[in-house]
Design goal:
By secondary structure, the chain is an alpha+beta fold. The protein has 3 domains: 11-98, Orthogonal Bundle (Helix Hairpins); 115-165, SH3 type barrels, CATH 2.30.30; 171-306, 2-Layer Sandwich (Alpha-Beta Plaits). The chain contains 8 helices and 9 strands. It has helices spanning 2-11, 14-48, 51-76, 81-98, 100-115, 155-160, 186-199, 234-252, and strands at 123-126, 129-136, 140-145, 150-154, 163-165, 171-180, 210-216, 221-230, 305-306. The strands form 2 sheets. A 5-stranded antiparallel β-sheet has the order 4-3-2-1-5. Strand 7 and strand 8 (221-230) form a beta hairpin. The longest helix is centred in the N-terminal third of the chain and has 35 residues, at 14-48. It is elongated.
């Protein structure tokens, strides 16, 4: 009872009360200044540098001012600074042994911030996860997927995993794999594809579309048609270019084959004969010739490029 009375008398000391009030006011004002300063630095860096660097600079300023405020408050309350440093050292060593994973994520976060392989707002793919970068923190990276899910990936995982940035550059190339029947003229197919690319509003004139003959497949002549577009139009472009190629092939009578199989009754016998019954065959339709591509889209002398494996 006597100890409690002594504690209350010391706490109720006017000088002690004034000290506690000053420390509380200092803490409130200091945290407010830290928050305001961090946001101001963030806005300034975003305006002149980048969103990511503004975010990092704002966080650094906020935490630095907060640490200084806490040290000032503790000194105001009468704590010795040398004792605090000793306690902080012991606490840091114990914390390092207890949270090795967090320390690894922290170091990895520093590397990510310095290297800056992506920034806030970029679209990245990490493993099987595809989403927009919401923030790059000291311990993790936050993503928002296309189906509006929140994904948190530790920085250590980001550093060890292959990361694909889909919006790093202003343009992207769509590689369209196409197969046509063996009876088709490759040059004619090339001209039809160039015409489709020319008419598509999202197709870029430079770099020019690229036609590559890849080889002879089991049931088709395999080729690749690569067209460049702006990154913000990439999804819409891929959706429209496939439909336009299909419509053009239907219009000009270009056949897209399906797999063919031959049936044998033995190792040295002829295939089973197949014949049409039930009337004469319908007449073969006539298709118009594709228009000649413009001078801009006409490829060099060797227009069909064979890809060597």
């Amino acid at each position: 009872m006597e100890a409690i009375t002594k504690f209350i008398s010391e706490f109720a000391n006017p000088e002690r009360v004034v000290t506690i009030v000053k420390a509380a006011l200092l803490l409130i004002a200091g945290l407010a200044v830290a928050k305001i300063s961090g946001k101001a630095v963030d806005r300034t860096f975003r305006k002149y540098l980048s969103v990511q660097r503004g975010f990092i600079a704002g966080r650094v300023v906020y935490y630095a001012i907060t640490v200084l405020v806490l040290i000032s408050v503790l000194r105001q309350l009468g704590f010795e600074f040398t004792v605090l440093l000793g306690a902080a050292g012991v606490f840091t060593v114990a914390l390092a042994f207890a949270s090795q994973t967090s320390a690894s994520n922290l170091i990895s976060g520093v590397f990510l911030m310095v290297e800056e392989p992506f920034a806030v707002g970029d679209l990245i793919k990490v493993g099987e996860t595809l989403g927009e970068v919401l923030s790059v923190d000291l311990l993790s990276v936050k993503l928002r997927t296309f189906d509006n899910l929140f994904v948190r990936i530790p920085n250590e995982t980001m550093l060890k995993t292959e990361v694909t940035n889909l919006t790093r550059f202003p343009i992207r190339r769509a590689d369209i794999q196409i197969g046509v029947a063996y009876k088709e003229d490759i040059g004619r197919v090339r001209d039809i594809l160039l015409e489709v690319a020319k008419k598509n509003p999202h197709s870029l004139e430079e770099p020019r579309p690229l036609f590559i003959f890849k080889g002879y497949g089991d049931s088709s002549l395999d080729m690749q048609f690569s067209v460049w577009t702006l990154r913000e139009n990439f999804v819409e472009f891929r959706n429209t270019i496939y439909l336009e190629i299909k419509h053009a092939f239907d219009r000009y009578g270009v056949e897209i084959p399906f797999p063919h199989r031959s049936i044998y009754t033995g190792s040295v016998t002829e295939p089973f004969p197949v014949r049409m019954v039930g009337g004469d065959l319908p007449p073969k339709p006539e298709y118009p010739e594709p228009p000649q591509p413009s001078a801009h889209y006409r490829p060099p002398k060797s227009s069909a490029i064979v890809e060597e494996n």
